[in-house]
Design brief:
34% of the residues lie in helices and 10% in strands. It is an alpha/beta fold. It has one domain: Uracil-DNA glycosylase-like domain (Uracil-DNA Glycosylase, subunit E), CATH 3.40.470.10. The chain is globular.
Length: 221
Amino acid sequence: MTRDLWSLIPGPWQKHLANCRDELAEIDSYLSSAQNSGEIIVPDRENIFAALALAPEQVKVVILGQDPYPNLNHGIGLAFAVPNGTKPLPGSLRNILTEVEADLGQPPKTLPDLAHWVAQGVLLINTALTTVQGGSNSHAKLPWDRVVAQILNAVIAANPKVVAILWGKSAQNYAPIFSPDRVVAGAHPSPLSAHRGFIGSKPFSKTNAMLRLDHREGIDW
């Protein structure tokens, strides 16, 4: 039996998302209808809220992207991450890992699933948590924006100085809810836009510098 979206939200988050139940029901109805008509939803339903394995008080850094990779084999519910062993890597992740090395002068410590980042308190989330296979940004008009805003507000309530890395215009729409001196904004790392300001932007060293302002340990990228 297919589980509804609400039941898939980890317990520590349900109290924070209780006022989004109408939006979640609307999204759930849409996704069910789309699947019944033959569309493939990415990521798999069980992974839609995978990013929420981190409780709000555990989050030190938010990395906010646009929406999942439009490939069921890539989407694991964590923004920009893919299963280990994926070849070739999606262009966005390839550009991210290249920028880690260019920024910090050493190869990235993480595998493609980005679990090493998550373990250190990095919330990997998109402005829309689903898409259809083969179609980028296809669920942008669903009320994911209200759900994501509530997720981010819960993080900020627990950690007002959380550092936000906002990649792309969709993500940058959320900049006003963060402390302005804790925002690292830049172009999306997609090959279509990385040359417009992502490459060479040094987001990882900037983030660690902001964390250290609050006497917190930087992320071992």
